[in-house]
Amino acid sequence: MSGQLYLGLDLGGTKIAAGVVSGSGKLFSLVRVATPAHGVRSDLRALFDAAQATLAAARIGWPKVKAVGVGVPGAVDPRTETVWAPNLPGWKSVPLRRLLERALGRPVFIEADRNVQAMAEAWLGAGKGASDLIFLTVGTGIGAGIISSGRVVSGSRRVGGAAGWIAVTDRWQPAFARLGSLEAQAAGPTMVRAARLALRTQKRGVLARLARADRKLTGETLVRAARQGDARARRILAEAGEHLGRGVASMVALLNPELVIIGGGLAEAGDWLLAPLRRAAKKWGQPLASRQVRIMRTRLGADIGVLGAARCAMLEMEREKKSNVDFPSNQAG
Fold it and tell me: In this structure, are 143 and 283 located in the same domain?
């Protein structure tokens, strides 16, 4: 195994993924584990264990790793280099870069997961060659990685792309203060809650059978039920797609991208989610922008977070080598 190698870590609300990636985008190993979500210490241990396991799977040692990139489900404060992840208990002002560099002994670079996923799309995915795109991730939370004129847009405090806070209704709910309007109505946990409510009144059908077989109801269960013809699952996904489409309409009107790429765990629902999303985006959108934009599902699948985190580390190392004054996440492709 020759050439420069990077370690990509993808910290999610329910899963952690780690992989060894080459400078050309080849994935040599991939390890996935559950996110403990019991506090920062247990989550850090899981990150470290996943990193060690994926290096062992690739049969390389730490000296072969040039740098480590980490995608996190939240925001990174550029002044303090700390992480805020609202969907993970205890993740407020966590000095993740310092902690991981101490544990791993390699340069570590942290970025919001939505931004690293957009980087992956611009590098290897459907967005290759596109200068203006939005990557919308729909899972435990909702976020948007934005590339405009070939550069990642992350804002003055790197909170840009917090698409879950787009207002898609004028009826205030207390959950909006914690999650945002769009996320409270269209993210995975909301869909699961709606499915649980549906099962209270009707305990038969595909959704009920799969929930019993899985011993719990998850977003994956909901997607499988929709694929197998469950009307309730399809209705829940369609309602979420309608909300997402309104949010996408606002983003398209503001940014006029060539592409909107949908990813995250719920993107596996395919057209049960995307068809109502596209209809709503066109209905609510700015006429010119909404007609020309292409809305599609990611082609990179579940590997996108690891690939994007590794790409982030590559760009950071290039930036440091060139002593460029730009912020690390400004380049995308």
Answer: yes
